[in-house]
Sequence to fold (160 residues):
Amino acid sequence: MYYLKFTRHMPIKKAMSGSSYRFRLERIRALRERREEEAKMELAGALMRRQQCREELTRAETRIADARRAQLDAACAELRDHQAYLERMEQARRLTLDELARHEQDVAGRRARLMAASQEREALEKLKEKGLDAHNREQARVEQITLDEIAGNGYWRRAA
Fold:
């Protein structure tokens, strides 16, 4: 019988001389060793692809966050633009209201001047009418005197 002696630091020795040990399944072991190496390589590739995918996911999430920030910034900018536009429109309205108030004052002042001018003209019209009435009465009186003289002269002439 063969006895194998195992020592901690020494390789296995044959106890007796004879043919060397030949593992009959060495080819299968080598094949399985290759398969294990291939599996290790495939695992390493899968790990690398997973890491790349994670990095791509991180980049995609960063792009999405950037896009959201850009959208928010654009929305804020658009909102600021709309707010600025609204403020300009409100300012224009206030200026128009101020201008309208000035025009209202101008209209009121011109209306007051028109009323004064109208009253002054009406006063002169009344004076004119009074003067015309006085003139017409005077004319009628003078005509009546003239007619009375003519009638009186005709009477005196016939009587003479």
Remarks:
- The chain has one helix and two strands.
- The CA atoms of residues 17 and 131 lie 171 Å apart.
